Amino acid sequence: MSPPSTRHACLFHFNNNRDRIARASLLFLHREVNCLLDVLFTATSAICVNGLVVLDTGSVFSTFGQVIIMILIQIGGLGFMTLGVMVAIVLGKRIGLKQRMIIQQTTHSTSAQGLVKLSMYMVLIAFAFEALATIVLTLRWQQDVGWGQAAYYALFHSVSAFNNAGFALWSDSLSPFVGDPIVNITIVLLFIIEGLGYIVIVDVFQKRS
Question: pLDDT digits over 179-197, tens only?
């Protein structure tokens, strides 16, 4: 059995670390939550883009936390290998055969040729459609919440919709916009376009050109 002094020291360090974690979590949260496991669950759900939440994204998480969630959604939607290829290109690294085979499996491509270019197209396609949807939703929501918040909300929901993540900043999701043609058509088009798959979209653009 540990001496009292050792137990007190361990208890002090535990409480001290717990307080540090709680203070650090306030960077991501508007208020403290009962269990940090809920935050981990949210992060996992975001990067796996499965749409499951146990916390209200809009009211519980701070703006910084919401941005982190949005980045995780984007990473999960594009895939680690796609982003890895882009980082390698920026750094001037060579993409080897092993990496190309992994990309082929990730993208479900039938050919190992042009995979690096395909990865670049995937990023460009995602950013292009998300940017276009952000502009449309900003113009729709600015009359309700102002330009700044409208642009931020539009970007978050465009990223979430295009990657089929299911996250929303309103507590009742997009229910307030039932019957709103601009919001509904924009979000649905993002679902459909991403659902077609990047390879299909690239083929369509290549054949048209």
Answer: 999 999 999 999 998 888 7
